[in-house]
Structure formats: C-alpha cells, structure tokens
Design goal:
alpha/beta, 5-stranded mixed beta sheet, 3-stranded mixed beta sheet, 56% helix
Length: 932
C-alpha cells in the first residue's frame, strides 16, 4: 500500500517508506518539493488576497489533522481561483501543487490524479521541467495505487530526463526510489534492490536524512523478502534512528509527514516484535500507529494498521476480532481504490473464515481476491514482471486449491477436485502462455525506429561487454575491471528490460492481444489421446496434490508437503550425482522406490500409458524416469522409464498454445545443421601457430574465476565424434556440418537456419539463475587467427530468432534449468526456443557425462529416423539402450534428459532416409546440445 506525503521545512521529499506488517509492508512515499523550493521562483506581482488564502492553507496543512486538511483545501481553492483570474500561471502551478497534495489525503485517487494532470499541463506550458517531473512522479504513484502499472512505469521513465534537465539531483533520487517501489510491488526484488541502492547512494551523497531513512525502509523490505532477517533489521534500525533524530531536532515544528514516518517506525517495530513472538508489545505499537494515521486522515495507513491488527488477532486465536479488523480495512481499501491491497485483505479474510469453519464465505473472498489479482496482472506490460507479480501471489492460489480439495474430501462426487485442477493451471506458467501467443522472432511492425535502435544498441553493447570479459581473462587480468564490467552488464540489462516493455506496448500484436486463459477440465482432457495420462502436481506447505487426468477420467490424491518432498528429492539426486555416492547403487534404488510410492500413490491407473507430467516446485528438478517401480532380489531394478514414455510440460495449457502455433506450419526444405566442437580457449591446439601469440594457460585461481564468470570452457572431446555420427544418418545434400572455427554465433543468426528441420548444438551451455537473459549457448570464442570473438548466444538472442521447430534438444549442463519463479517454473533456454518456434524441447537436468551424451544422442536420432519412433518413444529407447551398458547404468548418465512439449509422432517421410533427395515433410528441428 502506498501513502504519499511531503517533507515541508527545508527538505525536499522523496522517500517511499515501506512500513512492515506481518501480512503486508506499507509504503509511504513523497515526490513533492518543499514550499521554499517552489516559492523561490514565484512571481512578485501577486494579489494580496490570494497570497493570504495561500498562507492560510499552509498554516492549516502544517497542523496535520483531517479538519485542518479540509480547511487547507478550501483556502487553496480560493487562492487558485484568484491566480487564474490574474492569469498568473506560476502561482497557479504553486497552488495546484499544494492543492493536489492535500487532495491525495481527502479525495479518491481519481480526483487527485485529475489535479496532478492539470498541474502537469500547467508545468509544460511554463516549461518548468522540475514541476513537470514532480507531477509525473505523483501521477505514477497514483497510477500504481490504482493498479495501472504500465502507465506508472511510463510516467516514471518520463520523469528521469526532466530531473536531469533541471539539474535536480534529489528528483533523480525520487524517480529511482519509485522505480524500486514499482518493481517491489510486482514481486521483482532483484530489480527493486538495484534501484533502491542507486537511490540510496544518491541520497547519501546529498545528505538528506529523511530520504535515506525512507530508502533504508524499502531496502529492509527487500532483505526480508529474500530471507535476510538480520540485514532487514539492521536497515530498519538505521532508518528509525534517522526518523527519530529528525523529530527530536524539529520538536513542535515536526510536520505531518514526519508523523507519518513515526507511524511507519511504530509499524515496523511491531512487525519485528511479532517475529519475536512479542505479541502484546506489537499490538500496542500497531494501535499507536493506527491513532496517528487516523489523526492525519490517512486512509491507506489506517487500512494497513487495521489489517496488521487483524492478523495479530488471528495469531492469538481471536477470530471475531480478526474478522472485524479485516472488514474495516477492506472498506477503507475499497474507498481508496487500492485493488492490490484489497486483494490482500480479502485473502486474509478468507483465511480467517476458513479457520472459523465458514467455507462458503472463505471461498467467496478468495475468489474475489484472485479475480482482482488476475485483472491487475493484465495491466502489466512486461512478461517477466507479470511472472514475478503472479509469483508473489501464489499463496492465494495454493489456499484456494486447499479449500477446494478439502471440500472434495467432504463431497467427493461434486467436481471440486476438477475445479482445483483448473486453479492449479491458472497458477502455472502464465507468462510462458502469454509469450507463446505472440509472434515469434523480431517484432518490428508498428514500432518506432528510435526504440528499435535502442534495443539493437543495447544488444551490441552487451555483446561488446561479453567480448571484453573474454579479453580480460586472456591478457592482464584486473579484478576491478571485472567488477566494472559486471556492473555495466547489470545496468544494461535493466535498460534492456525497460526497452522491451516499451516495444511490447507499441506493437500492434501486443495491443490486439487477448491474453490466453488457462484451460478448463474438459479442454485439458481434449488434449489427451487414449494412450496418454496427465499427471499434474501442486506442492503446498502442509500438503501437496496430484491430479491424474484421462480423456474421460479424473482422479486426485493428497501427497506430502513441499518440505518433505524437497528433502527426499535432494537426497535422491545426490545419491547418483555425487561420485562418492554413485558407486552405492542400492542407495539410489531404495530412494527412487520410496519417491515412486510418494508421488504415484496408485500405480495401477497408469499401467501402459504415456505420462504427460506437469511438475511443480522441487519436482522440476526430479528425473521422473529414474523412479524405481520394482526392485526384485538379485535382478536389475525396473525404472519408470522402462514402462512409460515420459513428457513434461510447464502446464497443460501451454501444450494447447504450442499445437495452435504449429498446426499449419510448412515444412522446412533441409534436414540437419550441426554446430559442434567449438574453439573455446587460446590454448586450443587447433589454433596452430596462432597459439604462440596468445597467453599460456591461466593460473589455477584465475582459471576458476574465469569459469565462474562464464568465459572459460574446456573442449568437449566427444562432440566432434558425435557430430560425425549424426551427419552420417542424413543425406549430405540436406545437411550442414559446422565444426570448430565454423561453429560461430554468426552462423546461427544466418537466415538459412530457418531452412533446416534438425539443428544440433554440441557445445557448452551457460546457466545464469540470477539474470536468466544471460543464460545461453557457447560457440567458438576465437577465430583461426587466435583473435577473441563473441560466441555467446544468450537467451535474449534466442528470443530474436525465428526457428519454426518441432523439437529442440538441449542436452547436458543443466540446460533444462534456469531461474525458478514460483508458479512460473524454470525460466531458461526452454522457453526461449519455444518462443522462437519449437514445439518440442529435450533438455537436461544436470551436467552429464560427455561420452554418455554422445552415445545417447546418436541412439535418439536412430530411434527417430531408422525406427520411425515418436520423440518420447525415441528418448525412452535411447535411455534404455544407454543404461544397458554397465558403465552407464547409473541414472547419472541417462536419466537427466527429458522431453518437453508435443509427444505425438513426427510424420517423417522418405526425405529422412539416407541417400534420398529432400522432399516435403512436417517441419522438425532438433537442437541437441551436448555439454560438459
């Protein structure tokens, strides 16, 4: 919740102060310059009466009560009318500035917004860039409160160059701070921390204690959200000291805005007391804060304290009191139009009603809360921010699922479990669903050339910085230069995200886009054939759920909670990923059998079926194929992959979009393009005489640093052999073999790549879970002359490709992983290639053995081409063939590969038979990445 206020006196206001609550953080922010700052340039020719009204308004405003605010509004309205009679625009701007400020306290957001719009127009007529920027920030704050997120971003972006034009450094602090608040509201904590730190550094250089306190409050929230309680407390204590010092210094002259800061401090102190189970002290401080909000007439602050008091009563088991507080908070939030916080209060109302046994009331409130979230999500014009926003609201969906499944236990034949499945779909991979409904590749139609040029310039700059990192480790290494490069890359990525958001909003495709809705039960069932079952999981804190869906059937099961499964899956993975444990094969077998019983409670219903698995949470890291279905004495264990074809998807709804995108696709004329065995280091023997001009191998400590930085890679000895074996399966006239120095980034971006059905990358991959845009593939980093070149194909590059593909294989080096966003899944290369056009993706969940990868890929292609198998069956066959070799029997070697997307058979033609000429066939593209 956002409460905006002005530091009068000698300060200039800026801070968005986050006030903690057990159920929420309350934000207080301000963007208004002080009266002194405004009045410095006021006209000397003024009407005495108007000046008198204006001064009366200031006097009332500084008293800080609701009655005084109303009197101030009346005085300023009189002054404004007189200034308009005199056509005195500077004084109109001054008076409007204060009138808008008090209207924010007394009137609905729409009225205050109209006031600031008028102030903005007046400032533009006066060519007053500072007041214009000030108005834009206030407008952004109100837009944020109303849930108009994209408009708020645009207002803030417009304000920054205006502050710079006015050379008003505190204004830049304002906008950076508000950008941090925007990102925090949308759940993007990394971006929020970036802008808050930027604002804090600027505020500290200016020495403004109030601004420093406000920003430290915000950073404390980021720390708390990230689990750093100690860091959050340290920042909060520092902020509170700043607030208290200001109040002590000013005494009776302390403004209403400083009283808001006092209320914020009390609220945050209460929050810490709740964490330490000091509930009585917390209640006292929450009530003190409530009194201050009420005295100030601050409805947003009052609602926040009421909500927190409701949660406190809930913790103490006083449900009637909790419900009363929540309902009072709800009325205020509806009055102020704060839909985001209205959804929060409705969520906690639902929790309290459920605890009291009133299921219908609980269901009504949580449905309204989710309805508000869904509508707010639609207003976010950036895919990543939509994902982070929904991630921050996953508790709502999980609570609703629990409520429906409990109702299913009471009324098992009323369809409650089917409704819970639909809610599960609504909570999964929604951002991926959005991007797959857009046009793949480069979107240029309807976009301003200036904006496209910005995007391309940033991409070139990112590539240059990556090249500089390579050069840094190839010459005189300087850790300070590395830190500077890393910061420059972080800054560029922030700019890149904002430019992409602007491009999205300008695109006619975007404006015409109706975001796809998740499927209902009958639509999900229609996706399945009679040989396929859907297994969809939803993990919860106390309990998890499994829905097993057939063409005309639905069964549901209650599973252990997420923490229990998390521990079991981590232990299972370690049993074959850790070399010291890998030799103890019975350990992996016994744990695999135990997990099988936990995750598939009724094996009889899946007998003989292909399994389409929609995992959740830690299950995304689980190799389902390695689950043990039987372990007879003195015999090899039977794995799930021995009995079932396995396919995974981020959600069932994603499959529907993929099928729509590929239904009418024309086949590509050529078959296979291979990129393999690139040149990664200056010491590669293929450089020949050029190696003499390059540095020797890096020292061990520097080599480790280079590997951590993602710029140093070993040669993969089996990838050349792998490429030759794959090429041998295809007609030479329909194949392309890019090996060594020819395996370059430039070749990937050649237009001819769209003409190949199968593309195979045998190279390294990069996983960057902090900045997913920097994840990608690595091709040759040196040319034949030994000169460094850019060989990185990053995720943002992949989104710019147009690769109409049926199957993408990215094997080894954890190419199936990425940044985990709650509800959205793993954001990595898979979604990039799906957006580029791929209907199927084969990826790996860990760094597998190079030799094993080469063998598995060869068997996989043989299954597809020679045995005419469907992709899922071909992968199953290849994994079975590989584990027959005693050297590769451990799941470590074969179980990491998984197929995502379409499972149905590829309509292969005689074009795929060796020695035949190309012929028309269904478009297929396999991108197989064999990595270390």
């Amino acid at each position: 919740m956002a409460v905006r206020f002005l530091f009068n006196l000698a300060l200039t206001a800026v801070a968005t102060v986050c006030v903690w609550g057990v159920t929420e953080w309350k934000q207080i922010s301000s963007a208004q310059p002080s009266p002194a700052a405004i009045l410095d340039g006021e006209s000397k020719t003024t009407i005495a009466t108007a000046q008198q009204y204006f001064n009366q308004g200031l006097k009332h405003y500084q008293q800080g009560s609701v009655t005084d605010f109303q009197a101030a509004q009346s005085s300023w309205e009189e002054a404004l009318a007189l200034w308009r009679q005199e056509n005195n625009l500077p004084q109109v701007a001054v008076t409007l500035n204060f009138l808008c400020l008090v209207q924010r306290q007394l009137l609905p957001p729409a009225a205050a917004l109209a006031c600031y719009q008028e102030l903005l127009t007046t400032a533009q007529a006066l060519e007053d860039s500072q007041t214009e920027a000030n108005s834009l920030v206030a407008i952004a704050q109100l837009q944020l409160q109303q849930g108009s997120y994209q408009e708020a971003f645009e207002s803030l972006e417009r304000s920054l160059p205006l502050w710079q034009e006015a050379n008003f450094k505190t204004g830049e602090v304002i906008s950076h701070n508000e950008l941090g608040q925007m990102y925090l509201t949308l759940g993007a904590t990394a971006q929020a921390e970036y802008f808050y730190n930027k604002a804090l550094e600027q505020a500290q250089s200016l020495g403004n204690r109030g601004n420093i306190a406000g920003i430290e409050h915000n950073l404390a929230q980021v720390k708390f959200t990230s689990g750093d309680i100690k860091g959050a407390l340290a920042l909060e204590e520092s902020a509170f000291q700043h607030w208290q010092s200001l109040i002590n210094d000013l005494g009776d002259r302390a403004t209403p805005d400083l009283r808001r800061g006092q209320a914020a401090g009390l609220n945050n102190l209460a929050f810490m007391q709740v964490q330490n189970q000091q509930l009585n002290g917390a209640k006292e401080n929450y009530q003190k804060a409530l009194i201050i909000w009420q005295q100030l007439g601050d409805k947003n602050g009052e609602a926040s304290s009421l909500n927190n008091l409701g949660y406190l009563a809930f913790l103490q088991g006083d449900l009637p009191t909790a419900l009363d507080y929540y309902q009072r908070a709800l009325a205020l939030r509806q009055m102020t139009g704060d839909r985001l916080k209205e959804s929060l209060t409705r969520y906690w109302l639902a929790v309290a009603w459920k605890q009291q046994g009133e299921t219908q009331q609980a269901m009504a409130e949580i449905e309204k809360a989710i309805y508000l979230v869904e509508n707010l999500r639609q207003a976010i014009g950036n895919d990543d921010l939509r994902a982070s926003f929904l991630a921050s609201k996953q508790d709502y969906y999980q609570f609703y699922i629990d409520l429906l499944m409990e109702q299913h236990q009471r009324e098992p034949n009323q369809g409650w479990d089917g409704k819970a499945l639909v809610v599960s779909e609504s909570a999964k991979a929604r951002s991926l669903l959005d991007i797959l409904s857009q046009t793949p590749g480069k979107i240029t139609k309807g976009i301003s050339p200036q904006l496209l040029n910005q995007k391309e310039t940033i991409e070139r700059q990112l590539n240059t910085l990556q090249e500089n990192k390579i050069k840094l480790y190839s010459s005189n290494y300087d850790p300070q230069k590395q830190a500077e490069l890393d910061q420059a890359i972080a800054d560029l990525l922030q700019r890149y995200d904002r430019v992409l958001g602007q491009i999205e909003r300008q695109s006619p495709d975007y404006s015409a886009l109706t975001r796809p809705r998740p499927l209902n039960l009958s639509q999900i069932q229609a996706l399945l054939d009679d040989e396929t079952l859907l297994l969809e999981y939803a993990l919860g804190k106390e309990r998890s759920y499994l829905w097993v869906v057939g063409q005309s059937s639905l069964r549901s099961y209650v599973l252990p909670g997420a923490d229990q499964l998390d521990e079991a899956i981590k232990s299972f993975r370690q049993s074959f990923l850790e070399p010291t444990q890998r030799i103890r094969r019975p350990l992996a077998v016994s744990q695999g059998a135990q997990l099988y019983g936990q995750l598939i409670p009724d094996p009889t219903i899946i007998t003989g079926k292909r399994l389409l698995i929609v995992p959740d949470g830690v299950l995304q890291y689980l190799p389902f194929g390695a689950l043990v279905t039987a372990n007879p004495p003195n015999q090899p264990p039977t794995y799930l992959i021995d009995r079932h074809e396995l396919v995974t998807m981020p959600s069932a709804s994603t499959l529907s979009i993929l099928r729509q995108n590929t239904a009418q696709r024309e086949p590509a004329p050529n078959l296979l393009a291979v990129f393999a065995d690139p040149v990664f280091t200056a010491s590669d023997e293929r450089l020949g005489t050029a190696i003499a001009r390059r540095p020797e191998n890096l020292p061990v400590d520097l080599e480790l640093s280079a590997r951590d930085a993602g710029v140093y890679f070993d040669r993969l000895p089996y990838t050349e052999q792998e490429a030759e074996q794959l090429i041998a399966l295809f007609p030479p006239e329909a194949s392309l073999n890019e090996l060594g120095f020819e395996a370059t980034r430039a070749r990937v971006f050649a237009d001819t790549m769209e003409q190949y059905r199968f593309i195979h990358f045998a190279t390294h991959g990069i996983l960057n879970s902090k900045n997913p845009q920097l994840s990608g593939l690595v091709l040759s980093l040196f040319n034949p002359a030994g000169e460094p070149i850019n060989g990185f194909v990053r995720l943002y590059d992949i989104f710019n490709l147009n690769l109409p593909a049926d199957l993408v294989v990215l094997s080894a080096c954890q190419t199936g992983l990425g940044q985990e966003v709650r509800g959205e899944g793993l954001i990595g290369l898979t979604r990039g290639f799906m957006y580029a056009g791929a209907a199927r993706v084969v990826v790996s969940l860990w760094s597998v053995d190079d030799e094993a990868t080469a063998r598995l890929m060869t068997e996989f292609y043989r299954g597809l081409l020679q045995q005419q198998m469907a992709p899922a069956a071909a992968l199953q066959w290849a994994q079975q063939k590989l584990k027959e070799d005693p050297r590769f029997a451990s799941p470590y070697y074969w179980a990491g590969f998984t197929l995502q997307g379409e499972w149905q058979n590829l309509p292969l033609s005689t074009q795929l038979a060796k020695g035949t000429s190309p012929a028309s066939s269904a478009p297929t593209k396999i991108i197989g990445t064999s990595l270390n």
